[in-house]
Write a structure and sequence with these properties.
The chain is mainly beta. The protein starts with 8 loop residues before the first helix and ends with a strand. 5% of the residues lie in helices and 35% in strands. The N terminus is likely disordered.
Length: 856
């Protein structure tokens, strides 16, 4: 808006007169009709009952921004009547038994051209009207209104920003009080208290004037008394110039005075205009000084920046607060007929709403809903190597099929014609170190109701060769767990099938490295004698675009480490013999596990033993138990079965074939499983056995400290039988899951296994790209060599540790001519985790030095 000066005094006087006429004169205005009044009505809540199909929501008939009814049911709709537009009922916010509020969460508003838009929250609108009816008694509690919560509030604990309409803040009264706050979070380079934005820019300090309160705590009270036990119509208008006007029963309320507020035309007013004051700036020169960076880097957004964060959103609440995820109550009151317009209502139109002469019952429920189904927007892999590929998938109903109906931020193209679909996205190389975080946000739009959003975050990890694909390393995506990995981050834990406190795979930190471990943190079952666990645990990862289709070859790689927790001898509770034991299996499958791993060899509960014929695909098994029933300490063994299609023809045993002492404990092992998916069909009945075209697999093993890997067995056949509930698990020819399972078996009458914490650790799971691969996916790659004076620092990618810490040797030579003379500078250097460094301070006066890293 252009600011007038004293050079044009008549312009100023005319603007003031016209504004006064627009605000106070009703004669001469066109007489409204139902059609004209409802023009621009974008949200209407009659508050007559709950949303169809819901017990805790009440519908917005037009925009379908339905309010959630917190701590309320249909019983809160009571019979009452007021003079305006009304049906037979209103809603009673009794505030009994806890806060009772109406809540709507907005997400993702972006007022820039081409951005998303939602008619709520009201504070961020221009040329808009909010109108509702209230009936309440005097109190010093909040009465109603717009309570703002930014997404960061839940994380940083701040109590702003928010706009509230409340009763007077001290004493008992019946006036309405307006309060708008946006606290500062930092100090800019000029020493001014400002709000820090996620992109490193700052919010202008004007919003924070007066100690953080734009509409201050000590002013902004209505002259009229809307809280006197009678029904009153409350209207708030924000015009196109950000001026805010409050009307009680259709009469403009100028406030009790003393706050010094004026609208942009110079008229005394209860509230200061909501100018777009929070322009960002990225330099120490303020835009108010006449200099600013252009959008979007320089200044963007509206009054309260965090209110519409796409991940959290802001809250529009009647009856109290929803701030930082905490709900607090307001006044015992009745509310009815909440409406929002995308234009400013005239005073005649407000009088029309007062007289109940419009047939608002003609407004029918809008059924043009948008729904983002299932898990929303998903990524088949949550962490990939830099330059790797991730598959994004979605399922949307109700979005427009024309361009703009379905879009994904960060992904080129339009997906409106594919409401159920997926797309492959290559995550580009990044500068400096290649570590990145990518958040993709799907927006579903139909132009009728509020846009819907779903987001997923994918991480990139450096040092992964292009011929390997990272499935999971757990460090970035997962936090340590004690309740299982459940169904999150592309992993599924079948906790509900097995039940019990021991039945889960957890993510646990070991040597600063997060790894997967079955039954980490032993807790006895509540329903069984201590140590007795009748079933087992199972988890699998969806391979997504890494799925091995018929005719394809690939190598599965992962690391594991074994730990002996000791043996428990003698009689346990209820005369149960308890032994520290392990029956673990891992492999590839297409089995759906819809009803648990059912199969041939089941225990008394019908649960298949992982590693048995019930595993349905190429797999290995790691076991440790004394089958004699003496519960003696025995070695760990690695087993595998060669399946003919009708029976097991050969069983591999590491103890029998390689070392009678079995697998070592506290040693890191690397395992390669070369898989050829020869399957061309899938059995779909419970009794049919496929005897041909089964997948074949070959397994290699290398212990840390060993110079080469060892071939354990080659070209074994993985079972493709579907005995059990095959049809419900939808078998198919594709190997689309990496799965892990741990089982229990009863050794004899009264005997049982027990798996204790950290007996087995798993980490660093990869699939090769389109062919067998014998390399280590991420052993180490030099990332930088930095010289500072006589010091040379070498940095390289490395592997995190399991029980045994990885160690490296660093060697140096000053010449590579002829036969280089390599000198060992350090031996047994412990791994630094994902990155390791070494500084050589012994170069002396040499101008050139060459280095090499060796492992193990």
């Amino acid at each position: 808006m252009k600011i007038t000066t004293q050079k044009h005094p008549f312009t100023v006087i005319l603007a003031v007169l016209l504004a006064a006429l627009a605000a106070f004169v009703t004669t001469g205005q066109a007489q409204p009709t139902f059609q004209t009044v409802t023009n621009g009505l974008v949200d209407y809540y009659p508050l007559q009952g709950t949303t169809p199909g819901s017990t805790n929501a009440t519908p917005d008939l037009i925009g379908r921004r339905d309010f959630t009814m917190v701590n309320m049911t249909g019983a809160n709709f009571i019979s009452d009547s007021h003079g305006g537009i009304d049906g037979s009922k209103v809603i009673n916010l009794s505030q009994s038994g806890g806060a009772t509020i109406l809540l709507y969460l907005s997400k993702g508003q972006n007022p820039l051209p081409g951005g998303t838009f939602d008619n709520l929250p009201f504070i961020n609108q221009r040329n808009a009207t909010m109108n509702f009816w209230i009936k309440g008694n005097p109190t010093n509690a909040n009465i109603s209104g717009e309570v703002r919560e930014w997404a960061e509030c839940a994380q940083d604990g701040q109590s702003s920003p928010f706009l509230s309409i409340s009763s007077k803040n001290s004493g008992i009264d019946s006036f309405a009080h307006f309060f708008l706050r946006d606290d500062t979070t930092t100090t800019d380079p000029n020493g001014v208290s400002v709000m820090s934005m996620p992109d490193g820019t700052y919010e202008l300090p004007l919003m924070n004037a007066g100690g953080g309160n734009y509409w201050t705590q000590g002013g902004n009270y209505t002259t009229n008394t809307p809280l006197d036990g009678n029904w009153h119509m409350f209207t708030m208008i924000i015009d196109s110039n950000a001026n805010c006007y409050v009307y009680i029963d259709g009469i403009l309320d100028g406030g009790q005075g003393g706050n010094g507020a004026n609208d942009s035309y110079g008229n005394p007013q209860m509230l200061k205009p909501l100018f777009v004051t929070n322009a960002y700036y990225t330099t120490n020169i303020y835009p108010s000084a006449g200099v600013s960076n252009p959008p979007p880097s320089g200044y963007v957004q509206w009054v309260v920046p965090y209110v519409n964060d796409v991940n959290k959103g802001g809250s529009t609440v009647f009856g109290g607060f929803d701030r930082n995820g905490a709900i607090s109550a307001g006044l015992n009151e009745e509310i009815s007929d909440i409406g929002y317009w995308n234009r400013a209502l005239s005073t005649n139109e407000m009088q029309y709403l007062m007289t109940n002469s419009g047939d608002f019952s003609a407004i029918q429920l809008n059924t043009n809903l948008i729904s983002i189904n299932g898990a929303g927007l998903t990524a088949d892999l949550r962490e990939v190597g830099v330059g790797g590929v991730v598959q994004l998938s979605w399922n949307v109903t109700g979005a427009s099929s024309s361009p703009g109906g379905i879009t994904i931020s960060g992904v080129s193209g339009d997906f409106s014609s594919s409401p159920v679909g997926s797309t492959l996205v290559t995550l580009p190389q990044l500068p400096v170190n290649g570590v990145g975080t990518y958040t993709f946000t799907l927006r579903a739009h139909n132009g009728i109701v509020a846009d819907q959003f779903a987001s997923v975050t994918v991480y990139t990890f450096p040092g992964v060769p292009s011929n390997w694909n990272l499935i999971q390393r757990f460090d970035k995506v997962f936090q340590p767990t004690t309740a299982g990995i459940a169904t999150t981050n592309n992993w599924v834990g079948i906790d509900s099938y097995f039940g019990g406190n021991m039945d889960r795979f957890n993510v646990t930190p070991v040597n600063g490295n997060e790894v997967l471990s079955p039954k980490t943190g032993y807790v006895p079952d509540n329903t069984q004698p201590i140590g007795f666990d009748p079933a087992g645990s199972l988890a699998y990862a969806q391979l997504g675009h890494l799925t091995l289709a018929p005719g394809q070859n690939s190598t599965l790689f992962f690391r594991f480490s074994l730990h002996d927790p000791g043996t428990f001898d003698g009689n346990g509770p209820d005369n149960l013999g308890i032994v520290s034991a392990l029956d673990f299996a891992a492999g590839l499958t297409d089995y759906g596990f819809a009803t648990g791993p059912l199969g041939y060899n089941t225990n008394s509960l019908g649960a298949a033993l992982p590693g048995s014929e019930g595993t349905f695909g190429p797999n290995i098994e790691i076991t440790r138990y004394d089958s004699s029933g003496n519960y003696a300490a025995v070695p760990f063994d690695l087993n595998a079965q060669d399946y003919s299609g009708t029976s097991v023809t050969n069983t591999y045993s590491y103890i029998s074939s390689v070392n009678a002492s079995g697998l070592q404990t506290n040693v890191n092992y690397m395992l390669w499983m070369d898989v050829s998916n020869n399957n061309t069909m899938a059995n779909i009945t419970d009794t049919t056995t496929n005897t041909i075209n089964e997948p074949t697999f070959t397994v290699w093993l290398q212990a840390q400290g060993s110079p080469t890997r060892t071939l354990l067995f080659s070209n074994y056949y993985g079972t493709r039988s579907y005995i059990g509930d095959a049809a419900s698990d939808n078998p198919n020819p594709n190997l689309n899951k990496l799965w892990f399972g741990v089982a229990n078996e009863s050794l004899n009458s009264g005997g049982a296994f027990i798996e204790t914490n950290n007996m087995l650790l798993l980490d660093d799971m990869y699939m090769s790209s389109g062919a067998y691969n014998s390399t280590i996916p991420r052993l180490f790659d030099l990332t930088s060599i930095v010289r500072s004076g006589a010091n040379v620092t070498i940095n390289w990618n490395s592997l995190g540790s399991l029980f045994q810490t990885n160690t490296y040797s660093v060697q140096r030579t000053f010449s590579i001519s002829g036969t280089p003379s390599w000198v060992t500078l350090t031996n047994g250097l412990p791994s630094g985790g994902d990155s390791t460094s070494f500084t050589d301070s012994t170069t002396g006066s040499a101008n050139t030095a060459f280095y090499r890293i060796t492992w193990p």
